[in-house]
Amino acid sequence: MSTFGKVSVAKQAKWGSASAHGMAISPLLQSHYLRFCAQVVPATAVDLLNATLGSELTNAAQARRLEEHFGLLPRVEEELTKPLRPDELQTNPELEPATAAAEGAAAEGAAAAAQEERLYGMFDGGMLRYDEGYQEVKIGRVFRASQLVAGKPDDEQADQRNRVLNSEYLVREGHYASFVDHFGNLLTAQQQQYPTAPLIIITDGATWMRNWVAEAFPQAEHILDFYHAYEHLCEFGTVLLPQESKRKDKLTQWKNQFHQGQSDDIIREIKMYLTHPHTRVVGAATELLTYLTNNASRMRYNEYRDNGYLIGSGAIESAVSSVVQQRCKLKGQRWDQGAQPVLNIRSMYCSNKGRRMEEIIIDQYDIAA
Question: Taking the C-alpha atoms of 269, 271, 277 and 278 in order, what is their torsion angle to the nearest 10 degrees?
């Protein structure tokens, strides 16, 4: 049931007055505004709302005012750093502890499931176009192992990718310092809610990411995304072996070595190319060697696979597109002011925290009353 359906008749009777932001729009209509604006630009949201409602009740100026007001509310930003509540979670029923006839067995099953639970944290960057040029945004994604539905690698007819039933997202404009402050709060809150679950962080190995994880979450298992590591090898292979057939064999060898946890062997081989007669190969080898050496402790892919950990960051790569770009990087779109209000509102709805938005909207009416 929607939050609005639980509000008393007496409280609903007061909804004709202006709210805390000075707009005499019912909380339900405000919720519609924000939910639609989280998906499309205000002008389109208004057209869709008016068509749905069958009247000209909404306009784009109101939509933008509501975006600015709610998108920058401290409470909204605070809710983005709080874990999903039980009624907001979507978990894979196959991973939940089985119902047991005996009470003791049920408790045992729940304890075992808790031990097997894992927390995954991923983050990455993207670009948005502003009047003054492109600026970076950082996005973080958090989910539990019990929210994963595994692909079916042995079934050619099935989707072989892992699927996450629902996640929590956090997006910040600008320098990463603002992002890590907020994302760190979310990860810490997750650890407090699931104290026995190991925290597994997967990144592309950028220096600021390595340094922050080491400082803020030294006990976390920090994994270098397998595909980023392999991509660096592919780039070097293009320089080392221009002939495609030879390069393909070498890349297959390196990929297998990565899977088998033999990254040290790869590093030793790359060091040999530092004395290569071609300076272009030496330069590429030097760059690759720096990357691999800095991330050597995060490339134990055989151990990760044995433990059942994810080793790829596809979940955050897709989030950059689905959470940020699908709404904030449309064709021809650019921002004259900050996109943070829209990013916050969209993150709330993409994180399945829509009911929290409804609660905030209603509370804003109570403040005004």
Answer: 90
Helix ranges, the chain (H): 9-13, 27-37, 42-53, 60-71, 74-79, 103-116, 176-193, 207-216, 226-240, 244-259, 263-272, 279-294, 301-306, 314-319, 326-328, 340-350, 354-368
- Residue 16, pLDDT above cutoff 70: no
User: In this predicted model, what pLDDT tens digit does every residue of 248-282 receive, in sequence order?
Assistant: 999 999 999 999 999 999 999 999 999 999 999 99
> How far lies 259's CA from each of 160, 225, 256, 285, in Å?
18, 12, 5, 21
Of 213, 208, 35, give the one whose Cα is nearest residue 125: 208
Per-residue pLDDT of 186-206, as tens digits, reads 999 999 999 999 999 999 999
What average pLDDT does range 303-309 have in this prediction? 94
**From CA 202, how far away is CA 209, in angstroms rounded?**
10
Cα–Cα distance, 311 to 200 (Å, whole number): 10
| CA gap 276, 294 in Å, rounded | 22
Calculate mean pLDDT across residues 89-100.
68
Distances (CA, A) of 159 to 91, 149, 310, 332, 356: 19, 11, 17, 33, 33
pLDDT at position 6 over 80: no
pLDDT score for 58: 86
CB 344 within 8 A of CB 76: yes
Model confidence at 3, in pLDDT bands (50, 70, 90)?
confident
**At a CB cut-off of 8 Å and minimum separation 6, what does 173 contact?**
128, 135, 136, 137, 338, 339, 340, 343
Choose among 350, 345, 355: nearest CA to 66. 345
